[in-house]
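# nightly structure sweep
# worker-07 picked up a monomer target from the shared queue
# config: single-sequence mode, recycle default, output format = structure tokens
# input follows
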Amino acid sequence: MESEFHVFSGRIYKVGLIRYVDVPADISKRLDGGAHVPVAGEVDGVPLRTTMVSRGGGAYRLAIHGDIRKRLRVDSGAVVEVAIALDEQSREPELPPALALALRNAPRAQQKFRGMTTALRRQIVRYLTAVKTRETLERRAVKFVARLERREMPPKKPTKKKAKRRK
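# output follows
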């Protein structure tokens, strides 16, 4: 199924460290898919693949990543043209063979790994594969899986009760 592209212009603004463009209300309604909506497209001709986030009231905002801003030489206050469509491709990372094998042999770790968000799994795979040698990748994968196997779910922190003041 091919998604329809939606084109709009928006002014970049900053929230904390992240730069955003507000998605117009009519486009937000057409792309509505929950709190996080995966989209792909272009910002002033530069490819974009990201997730729109809710800004309340059924409206969304779109993060303009640093690599895109650097290529366009723009920042907060600049007006950019955006073309986006729903991104229906999988965002699941491709597991390196060493990690897949290590997880296959450790069912508890595999269950914990699958319970993580897709974004966190992608980040872990990025870390594991950012090495120069296959041996280092294998060593990292084995250590990671062993750590997942050992780790228990963190206990809930007890709530602190306020101490009564003595007069």
